[in-house]
Each structure stands twice: as C-alpha cells, then as structure tokens.
Amino acid sequence: MGPVVALLTDYGPGSEHVGALHAVIASRCPEADRVDLAHDIPPGDVRRGALVLARLGALAPEGAVLLAVVDPGVGTERRGVAMELRDGGALVGPDNGLLALAAERLGAVRALELATPAGAAATFHGRDVFAPAAAALAAGEELKGPPVDPASLRRPELPAPRAGPGWLEALVVGADRFGNVELLAGEEDLRRAGLAPGERVVAVVAGAGRRHEATVGRAFADVPHGGLLVHVDSSGAVALAVNGGDAADLLQTGPGLMLALARGA
What we know:
Layout: E1 4-9, H1 16-28, E2 33-38, H2 46-57, E3 65-69, E4 80-85, E5 90-94, H3 100-106, E6 108-114, H4 125-138, E7 147-148, E8 162-164, E9 167-175, E10 181-186, H5 187-193, E11 200-205, E12 211-216, E13 228-232, E14 237-242, H6 247-251, E15 258-263
Parallel strand pairs: 1-2, 1-3, 3-5, 12-13
Antiparallel strand pairs: 4-5, 4-6, 6-7, 8-9, 9-10, 9-15, 10-14, 11-12, 11-15, 13-14
Helix pairs in contact: 1-4, 2-3
C-alpha cells in the first residue's frame, strides 16, 4: 500500500475548503491515497473533533498521515504541530485540544512545531500550513522545527460523568445526522448506575425541566417506533436514540448541556 492521508475537519462535506486540502495534497504527493474521515464536525467544536479523531484515527491504515483541522483560533498564537506515531504514521493539526486524545491513543513518539510560511493566509492554515506538512510527510520528507513534548499538548475539557445507584449524569457531546445524542459516558458508567437493559428510566436535560421516559436497551428495535432508547453506541459511548425519529430534537439538547438519567417508576 502506498501513502495515505486521512482528513478530518469542520469545513463541511463537499465544501471548497475540503477541496483545497485535497488539491494541495494531490499536487505535492500525487501518489497518496486520500481518505475523508469526517468533514461534518460542528463548526469550531474542538471537543467533538478530538473525540471523533481519536476513534476514527484508530481505524486508518497503519502508517497513515492524519490531517485534522478544527481551528477556531486560526491566525492566533496557538501552535501548529506534526507528530510521529508509533506505527510510522503521523498526526498534523493545531494544538488547541484537537490532537491530544488521538496522540495518546495512537502513541505519539515525537513532535515538532510547524512554522507558518510567509504569505500564509491568517484564516486558512489548513490549506497553507497543515496540508503541505501532511503531504510532505506522506512523501517521506522529514520536517524540521522546534521539538514539542507530546505530553504538553492542550487537552479538551472532558468533565467526568457522575453516577450513583439508579442515576447517571453526563455531558452531551453532540448528535449525528440521525439525531442520536452522544454522552460523555461509557458502558462502565451505566453499570455503576445499575441501569441494565430492559429498565425504564427518565431522561432530563439540565435547565429544560421536561422529563422523557426511555428504556435501556441494545438496539433501536428494543423500543417501539417513536420510543426513546438509552444504549451503548458503536463507539462505546452512552447514547440516546428515537426509533425512527430524532432524539436531539425530542430532547431539545445540544453540545455542552448536561443530561441526567434516573431509574423511572
């Protein structure tokens, strides 16, 4: 297999900004295969981008160069970095909390700070800084720059879930295009709460006050059409879904809000 560059951004699928990254990589490393991991990260949502990058980066081919850009601070003093990973691949992007989880999961062995070339657009480092660096790494070139300790990378804010007998409270980190709501909690947190498949629970979004009855289950069909399901999704996160509907719309929730689950009557 030849070189692979895998891309993740908040630019939006099909946007000219994604096209610009592809064009730069294709012109500088034409032999590289390019894989679009995701371009639908909510604009500027570094935390969501970090979580998705960590799980999708682990699916990329061994030795792939991962190019990630969710960069609301573009043009400021935040640094750009490139990292060598233990499988021989690399991770490139802004050091604003986006890269740290992937760097830990994939094993960053060394890192360096990327220089901003003269003439780079202050608002498009994806095209002018990160894509050229990713293409160079895919082509086997060695980048130069001040060394960076991977342990010094900025981390996203990830508040721990709280759980007790019969209840669980966790942060909403986002929803997919089907309206399935992802929480910053995992299967072990459901177990700590003692919320087992088949149990009835009540879901309440902080500040909303409205109670929504749900059932803990495994698959969407574990609840009737239109029913609200609490389950562990394919990424291992606790999630809420409506069978045939949109849980984010039903719950009127979004990233950054707290959601509580409690054993119902």
